[in-house]
Amino acid sequence: MEFGEWALLVGMPAWRIESDNEVLLASEDPRELISRQISVLNSITVSRISPISPGGEVSFDFGEIRLHLFPLYSGNFYDSTERGEVSDDYEHWNLLMPSGRTVVGGPGALVSVKEESRLRKVFRR
Fold first, then answer.
1. Which sequence spans correspond to the domains of the chain?
2. Three-class secondary structure of residue 34 per DSSP
3. How far is it, in rounded angstroms, from Cα 125 to Cα 120?
4. pTM of this prediction?
């Protein structure tokens, strides 16, 4: 997988891509339609990230297009590891930054920054 200096990886939330006037694509649309139209997000820049409500919803604005994520898990039941760290099993999304850090949404409404992401190791260029 190739990605730019920044990469947004979406896990299990429902999502919708919309403009000011219409819904362009949604997570439960037919896979063939998604495959053809998801490229609308390629090579465009995130202009704003907006958390919405206490439920962990977030909107990534790309100028006139928005990617809206709706977490499927409340986050009230997630497991912790033996070391007391939050498990990544319920992460909603990961924003990989050029610095090597990763902004992580989830579980629940939790947003955190990880210094070294396992995803960065997997998806190195």
1. 7-74+90-122
2. helix
3. 9
4. 0.73
